[in-house]
């Protein structure tokens, strides 16, 4: 049986999805994500395969990326946070300052001394 003949293996809100299945599988990890995000998707055991359609794949991916983005925003904190540590750049070595400069893509001239970096 090729993937082009199969229908999505999911029940969406208790109703069997009629879209053609793609090559995305409904693994245990994805099933866990679906349960955590309280999506009303259940795998139909009678389907005989675990391939899902592009519609459901995109739905699951949107929920996953939204969650990741939210967590990363929370991790940065709000701009009015007073917990931001003060960094004394004069205590760092020149090599460390150069690494920071490269990492944050700060453009400047070559041959700068420590204070100019």
Characterization of the model:
This protein has 117 residues and is of the alpha+beta class. 36% of the residues lie in helices and 10% in strands. The protein is built from three helices and five strands. It has a three-stranded antiparallel beta sheet. It has a two-stranded antiparallel ribbon with strand order 3-5. The termini are far apart. The model has no long low-confidence stretch (mean pLDDT 78).
List key phrases describing it.
alpha+beta, 36% helix, 3 helices, two-stranded antiparallel ribbon, rod-shaped, single chain, 5 strands, three-stranded antiparallel sheet
Number of helices: 3
Helix proportion: 25-40%
Question: Quaternary state, please?
Answer: single chain
Tell me the span between the first and last alpha carbons: 63 Å
What can be said about this structure in brief?
This protein is of the alpha+beta class.
């Amino acid at each position: 049986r090729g993937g082009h003949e199969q229908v999505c293996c999911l029940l969406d809100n208790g109703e069997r999805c009629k879209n053609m299945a793609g090559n995305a599988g409904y693994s245990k990890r994805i099933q866990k994500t679906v349960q955590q995000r309280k999506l009303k998707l259940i795998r139909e055991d009678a389907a005989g395969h675990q391939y899902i359609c592009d519609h459901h794949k995109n739905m699951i991916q949107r929920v996953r990326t939204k969650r990741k983005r939210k967590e990363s925003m929370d991790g940065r904190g709000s701009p009015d946070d007073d917990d931001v540590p003060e960094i004394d750049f004069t205590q760092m070595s020149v090599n460390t300052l150069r690494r920071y400069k490269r990492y944050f893509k700060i453009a400047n001239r070559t041959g700068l001394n420590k204070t100019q970096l």
